[in-house]
Specification:
13 strands; 33% helix; globular; binds adenosine-5'-diphosphate
Length: 341
């Protein structure tokens, strides 16, 4: 597997793929060839699109509004589109990727609101996350952006821990649903206008319902700097490897989205992490955050905390207002004394 990763790394040098990910060829056997419309289908006439938000990998994403089921009011939404020139195969892949979200209904995972698969362009309607992805949000809070009068102040420790608890809560829900994310990173978390953070991208999520783990090393994209040693070495992805990636997200929060393992090449990161290396405490990083990172970066996967335990640790450390109804954690009825013992 390491050989394949190194090969892919070198291939990347010549293909200039953005986003610090490595591209591997996709086995056509795994690409579904149909999309069957279901109860998520909404008539196109109910969806209005307004300004552009940004470019997605399949097409433009717009701000929009969708009529409520009773037709009485408009719900704000984000509308993902597929480029009209795209091949049918891409349209189907886009719809099938979005379909992963049909199985989830919890506060800290971005909600799917509907799908328009009939006619052109293909649309996927999602809960609107007004401040975009967490990585861009963190970068926009950097002091070097202070000249920009719209620049937000960096989240303080309390807010950072709250955001961390929200991400862990979304992940606890996914993990209870037996989903392994495989690509947890700040770029794949989304920030709402009120600063609530939710898990927001399922491009690489895989259902492992009746398997212990997902083991497929060479398919898709490999976000090396977020990957646990066992994922890098053996292609093993579990909820424990998601916990490792969560530790890297904490690092991103503590550094306003610095690149993890800055100064090391992807190949060096791979060797360093497989060899037992972890990142040092970032400058000015509070103890609470770094000690949680270190728990998530335990080399042995089974020693890492579960996401429910992480929410428990964060609730315990900060304040009781985390125990609000919108936390899956509180629905799960977890006894914190058990979680912390
Ligand atoms: P893709 O996963 O198709 O590549 P992205 O998730 O990268 O698309 O989204 C492209 C742009 O749209 C980004 O700027 C992202 O912040 C924005 N975006 C995606 N989903 C939402 C959403 N639910 N609410 C607000 N903005 C969104």
């Amino acid at each position: 597997f390491v050989t394949i990763v190194v090969f892919l790394y070198f291939r990347r040098q010549y293909t200039q793929v953005p986003n610090s990910k490595l591209i591997a060829s996709v086995n056509p056997e795994y690409v579904p060839t149909v999309y069957v419309p279901d109860e998520w289908e909404v008539p196109r006439s109910l969806v209005k699109m307004s300004e552009e938000i940004g470019q997605g990998s399949f097409g433009m994403v717009y701000k929009g509004a969708m009529k409520s089921a009773d037709g009485t009011h408009d719900l704000p939404c984000a509308v993902k589109t597929v480029n009209v020139m795209a091949a049918d195969r891409d349209r189907i892949e886009f719809l099938n990727e979005a379909s992963v979200m049909k199985a989830f209904n919890t506060h800290h995972v971005v909600k799917l609101m509907g799908v328009v698969s009939q006619g052109q362009p293909t649309l996927v309607i999602m809960e609107l996350m007004g401040l975009g992805d967490l990585k861009s949000y963190l970068r926009s809070c950097r002091p070097d952006n202070a000249d920009d009068e719209n620049a937000a102040p960096p989240p303080d420790l309390k807010r950072t821990l709250r955001m961390a608890a929200e991400i862990a809560d979304g992940m606890a829900y996914l993990s209870a649903k037996k989903y392994v994310h495989r690509d947890l990173a700040a770029r794949n978390c989304m920030v709402a206008s009120d600063l609530t953070v939710k898990i927001g991208d399922f491009g690489m999520t895989r259902d492992i319902y009746d398997k212990e783990y997902y083991r497929k090393g060479t398919k898709g994209l490999l976000p090396v700097r977020w990957m646990a040693p066992e994922s890098l070495k053996d292609g093993v992805f579990t909820t424990q490897s998601d916990a490792w990636s969560y530790g890297v997200v904490l690092y991103e929060m503590a550094t306003l989205a610095s690149q993890p393992y800055q100064g090391l090449s992807n190949e060096q990161v791979l060797r360093y992490v497989i060899g037992g290396g972890i990142m040092e405490r970032p400058d000015d990083c509070p103890d609470k955050l770094y000690s949680l990172m270190r728990l998530c970066w335990k080399h042995k996967p089974t020693v890492r905390p579960s996401f429910l335990e992480i929410v428990g640790i964060l609730c315990h450390d900060v304040s009781h207002d985390f125990q609000s109804v919108s936390f899956y954690h509180s629905e799960a009825g977890v006894d914190l004394r058990v979680a912390l013992s």
